[in-house]
Write a structure and sequence with these properties.
This protein has about 280 residues and is of the alpha+beta class. The chain has 6 helices and 17 strands.
Length: about 280
């Protein structure tokens, strides 16, 4: 079986988040996909089956099936372009459909993902406190202009925005405790963010749910963040850049854009690179 290894959201042809991508005639069993994801060893691998003009796609971390994964979708777009050519592809995920558009720019594939409709959800203060207690920052370190919410754009992400960038740089957490707390709310990641301005966000993403301490680039969280920023009125429409993975020494850049209609699709784009 040919498993491609592609890094999504590369920054200057370095870094990014690697994913495995595999094509099948028929979708394998859950056990088989989980086994392959463990063997590949990346935070997620994507499995695709062609269905008429669409592609059914499933995502697996080394420990769990994941409802939706942005970076593995961007990596899959590059694999689709290699196999079928540049253009637009429709992907059927567990909770709806997304589409990707991919083009070759100076020898590297640049892909754009359009998410499912988004929403933001309030979180009870007791749960927020329990989560914060397992991190190395306090409630007082959070920026009051950005209320803690669960943001959804295919998967659920808890949003924390800190006042001081150094809190982001120094981020640590109790892996086992956070993993259990994430399961309670069916969270895929916990996003720890610092807003430099309206067009630049710095991000770190805890991915204990998937058995990985941290993701260097998280497309699903990026589109959820776009919906969240629109919902709270911080940036009602337009575009922004997200820098992630810098503190892991795996720099990644994600480009996010969206329109003003609450709940509508959010786009995330990035460059890919093939891993030898």
């Amino acid at each position: 079986m040919d498993i491609q290894r592609i890094s999504a959201f590369a920054y200057n042809n370095e870094g990014g988040n690697p994913a495995g991508v595999a094509f099948y005639e028929k979708m394998p069993t859950k056990e088989e996909m989980l086994r392959i994801a463990k063997e590949v060893g990346y935070s997620e691998s994507a499995f695709l089956v062609k269905q008429d003009e669409n592609f059914r796609i499933k995502y697996f971390s080394p420990e769990e099936e994941v409802a939706f994964c942005g970076h593995a979708t961007i990596a899959s777009a590059a694999a689709l372009a290699q196999k079928y050519g540049e253009g637009k592809y429709n992907l059927i995920i567990n909770d709806g459909e997304v589409n990707v558009e991919v083009q070759n720019i100076d020898g590297n594939y640049f892909a754009t993902l359009s998410s499912v409709n988004t929403y933001s959800q309030d979180v009870d203060t007791q749960y927020v406190q329990r989560v914060v207690d397992e991190f190395n920052f306090n409630i007082e370190d959070l920026n009051e202009d950005f209320p803690v919410k669960i943001a959804f754009a295919g998967a659920r992400h808890l949003i924390f925005v800190v006042k001081d960038k150094q809190k982001l740089v120094d981020m640590e957490y109790n892996f086992d405790a956070i993993k259990e707390l994430m399961k309670e709310k069916e969270l895929t990641t916990i996003s720890i963010l610092f807003s430099e301005n309206e067009t630049l966000i710095h991000s770190r993403n805890a991915f204990a749910f998937g058995g990985v301490y941290e993701d260097p680039a998280t497309g699903a969280a990026a589109v959820a963040l776009g919906g969240y920023l629109r919902d709270i009125g911080f940036k009602k429409e337009g575009s922004l850049e997200i820098l992630q993975g810098v503190d892991m020494k795996v720099p990644s850049k994600l480009f996010v854009s969206y329109e003003s209609e609450i709940g509508s699709s959010v786009k995330v784009s990035g460059y890919t690179r093939l891993i030898d």
